[in-house]
Structure formats: C-alpha cells, structure tokens
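Quarterly update from the structural biology core.
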Amino acid sequence: MTLKEMLVPTYVQMLGALSAWLGKAEAELDADKAAGLMQARLAADMFPLFTQVCFVCVQAQEGVLRLRQEEFPESVAALRNKGLEPPSAEWTIAGARAIIADTLALVEQGAADMGDLPPETPIAHALPMGMVFDFTAEQYVRDWALPQFYFHVMAAYAILRAEGVQLGKADYVAHLFAYLRPGTMPAPG
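Predicted structure, tokenized:
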C-alpha cells in the first residue's frame, strides 16, 4: 500500500462523514440550537466545533500537499486562522459544510496526479509556534497526518454527540458498509 493509498481514501471517507454528521445536526436540531452549534465545545479550554472542522480540513490539505512535496499555499494558513478567529457569520453549519466540500475537491484534485512518494523521503514538518519535526514520509503519515486528522474528526464527532445530535457508530464508520457481506445485516428490532 502506498502512502497516497493510505491517506487519500481516509480523508475522503471521513470528510464525507463529517459533512453528513453536520447535515444530520441541521436536520435534527431546532434553529436556536443549530445557530450556536459551531461555538459548542467539550471543555472550556478546547477548540469549538467550527475550529475542529477547520483543523480537520487543514490536516487533509497539508497531508496531500506534503505527499506532493509542495509548499503550503496561503489558503492553508488562512483556513487555520479562520478557525482561530472569534465567531463570525461564517460560523454556521452551512459554512462548515462548504469548507469541507472545498477540501474534498482539493484532496481529490491533488491526489489525481500525485505520484507515489517513497516512504523514506525526508519530510520536515514545521508548526506555527516554531517547533519542527523531522520525519520520513512514512513516519509523517503514520505518526502525524493520520493521528492529527482523526483527533479533530473525533473531537467534532464528540461535540456533536454532546450537543444532542443522534450519531452512533454506524455514522462514524458508514464507509465500511460497502464491505458488508450480503445477508449479514441484523434485522431491525
């Protein structure tokens, strides 16, 4: 399995799931609750839902760009910063879903002509506060790109659950149903 084959389908599946969870929230919550949803957080010192969505999308864009060995365009920092700004009119379910849709398009477009980066390729990953991690491409994917992406996906999922959105394991792993053996789904009841 190549690093691209590990990252890109994961990003596509989970970005799609995150958008679906937000759609479910929009359908289930009353207007007042939905209006404040993007500012919800699990703990006072944790980022709110809108920031989690922005960070999920930043992680996906960065992962693809790293495997393409391209510099990050200003739009990546702008998206990160958008998530760190005080709440604004963009902090809506529709706004978050639009960011996810844009990221899905960028991931799919970036993956379309991406080569297979050798796993031992050096990658220096600098953080905004000045820390720099020296990885191989394989270490970057395994130890940074996937865990960071899933951390923010899971935080978003947990916030949505805490806010009363009826999500369950089937929503989290909806992509797995493509592999379900016919005739093995338990009957509702």
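The helical segments are 3-28, 31-36, 49-67, 74-84, 93-112, 137-162, 169-172.
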